[in-house]
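Before relying on records like the one below, remember that each one covers exactly one chain. Contacts with other chains, cofactors or solvent are not represented anywhere in the record.
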Amino acid sequence: MSNAPSAAVALHGRDELATDPLADLAPTARALLPELTELEAAWPDLAHADRIVHGDLRADNMVRDHHLGVTFVDWAHATTGPACTDAASLAPQLVPAGHAPAEIAARLRDHPAVGNSPDTTTAFLAALTGH
């Protein structure tokens, strides 16, 4: 495991989009861009923590055993960071899997790692989805 800060600290993209918005950017996205850019800008200051995080959670890095539960595999990107990042990083992947955004938000709010740091989680999601 790396002792260096997570590469997630460098997540960004909304700042570039705000500087040069796409002509076909949806009106809702355009209206929310200043707020999302501000949230994304807060992320680097919040990204440092002492929890071990997987750093690359997605469906193909999880193995489910009906008796033992879920095991996380492929820890090549393990590092330290806020506990909320692993749980929150799954959120954007759940929408295409058929889960409603409101359902995902409710589950994240109820997750102990996220509930203890909602501002960090929000900033991380703004940076992750902007990336």
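Residues 66 and 102 are 28 Å apart (CA to CA).
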